[in-house]
Design a protein that fits this description.
globular, 5-stranded antiparallel beta sheet, Vanillyl-alcohol Oxidase, Chain A, domain 3, 14 helices, single chain, 29% helix
Length: 458
């Protein structure tokens, strides 16, 4: 099959290096303002599963490697590799079955659109915390989303997947068929050996009283805040999401502190009475000395996405790294110290204290690295000339957590560091993934992750 034949078989668009719009399309594959210094030979903007199959078969026939792009939101720029990029962004269909509480969603369906569509039927899903991120890489990497304490990690709410394999065949995988493929689709992230073209999702009733409360402190209150959060998560229902955000002080508080530590408690309750009862338990242990307190703010998913979106202005340059830990006190202390010396005022970090582990919410899957506390540090800056300073800050901050780190979350780990991919899985899961890759992708058609630097120019 030559290029002309490929174009005839693809219902979507095919872009090659000679095309006038190539650079705009290539740069647009990554949401981050920091673009990879890599140049695909061919970019296939798939319209359906048939397009994906045709692109994979073309790659096999011509000995080319394949990179899969969902939304291009991974901070390490994984969406752009050499060879052929298959862009799934246009595959965003959604069919909801309210009676069965299931939905069939294509990989380009974005979190914000999904929650909005489900809410019309009184349903919900543990979608990701950023509205513009699609299901593709989010679900494939596990999916640590809204109300995961009660609903579980997002990939464990997937009942089946439709996958194009390295030979171009299309298969369905679930707990009942193609079980090895389904196991890997639950958390393998960039180590997956195929292209997921559809997900069947298990849905939940939409909480009717989502309420968020915030307590903002000076950073030196970190030990008291951590102790409060840790104790609280053992007293409240699993429907509470409790996060500490270390960042530059918001304008109303900038005259009182340069940096702040804000404890954010979001309650996903079924009734207002339940929400207020849970809030009473939370606020009873709140440390004194808060600079600002805002209680029981009504926060639909749309409002939650607006809040999160303020931390990620489009066009900025980003880098991030994650750590799971069982030492919340030391983790929060070191993150707070790191944010205080960040070279960019826009950089921040967060730590989420989880409810006690429920084995029933962790069925078998490649997603196998988890701990009592999750953290992520985000370097956010504007100019390419600031790349070295901000990347050095991020990596130093993460290295300081190494003594208390259990491992990493592949969805937001600094995967330009070669050791991060192995550290995102349990040893047994990582070895099983390697064996499955050899079985299902013996020619190495799909790009394996490698540490590849991003360019310093804008």
């Amino acid at each position: 099959m030559d290029m002309r034949a490929l174009r005839l078989r693809i219902r979507g668009d095919v872009v090659i290096r000679d095309d006038a719009d190539y650079e705009a399309v290539r740069a647009g594959l990554v949401w981050n303002g920091r673009k990879p210094d890599r140049f695909p030979e061919i970019i296939v903007k798939a319209k359906d599963a048939g397009d994906v199959q045709a692109a994979v078969r073309f790659a096999a026939a011509h000995g080319k490697r394949v990179c899969v792009r969902g939304g291009g939101h991974h901070w390490s720029g994984l969406a752009v590799q050499d060879g052929i990029v298959i862009d799934l962004a246009a595959m965003d269909a959604l069919v909801i079955d309210p009676e069965a509480r299931t939905a069939r969603a294509e990989p380009g369906m974005r979190n914000g659109r999904l929650t909005e569509a489900l809410a019309e039927h009184g349903l919900a899903f543990p979608a990701g915390h950023c509205a513009s991120v699609p299901l593709s890489g989010y679900l494939l990497g596990g999916g640590f989303g809204w109300n995961s304490g009660a609903w579980g990690v997002a990939c464990h709410n997937v009942e089946s997947v439709e996958v194009v394999l390295a030979d171009g065949s299309l298969v369905t995988a679930s707990v009942a068929e193609n079980t090895d493929i389904f196991w890997a689709a639950r958390g393998a992230g960039p180590e997956f050996f195929g292209v997921v073209v559809a997900y069947r999702l298990r849905l939940h009733p939409l909480p009717q009283a989502i309420r968020t409360s915030l307590w903002t402190y000076r950073p030196d209150r970190g030990e008291a805040v951590e102790d409060w959060m840790n104790r609280t998560m053992r007293q409240v229902p699993r429907t509470v999401e409790f996060t500490a955000v270390m960042a530059s002080a918001p304008p109303p508080l900038a005259s009182q502190a340069e940096k702040t530590l804000t404890a954010v408690a979001t309650i996903f309750a079924d009734t207002e009475e339940e929400a207020q009862e849970t809030l009473a338990t939370i606020k009873a242990g709140a440390p004194e000395g808060a600079l600002d307190v805002q209680l029981s703010l009504p926060t639909s998913f749309a409002v939650l996405y607006q809040i999160i979106g303020q931390f990620f202005p489009e066009g900025r340059r980003f880098a991030a790294d994650t750590n799971w830990s069982d030492d919340p006190a030391m983790l929060m202390k070191r993150l707070t110290e790191a944010v205080e010396i960040a070279p960019s005022a826009e950089s921040f970090a967060l730590a989420v204290v989880l409810p006690p582990l429920d084995p029933d919410l962790m069925p078998p899957g490649a997603f196998s690295m988890v701990g009592p506390v999750f953290s992520c540090a985000y370097a956010v800056w504007q100019e390419a000339s600031q790349d070295d300073a901000n990347l050095a800050w991020l990596r130093n901050a993460s290295d300081r957590l190494a003594p208390v780190s259990l491992g990493h979350y592949v969805g937001e780990a600094d995967l330009d560091r070669a050791e991060r991919i192995r550290g995102s899985f349990s040893p047994a899961a990582f070895e099983r993934l390697r064996e499955l890759r050899r079985r299902f992708d013996p020619a190495g058609r799909f790009h394996r992750l490698a540490a590849q630097p991003l360019r310093k120019t804008g």
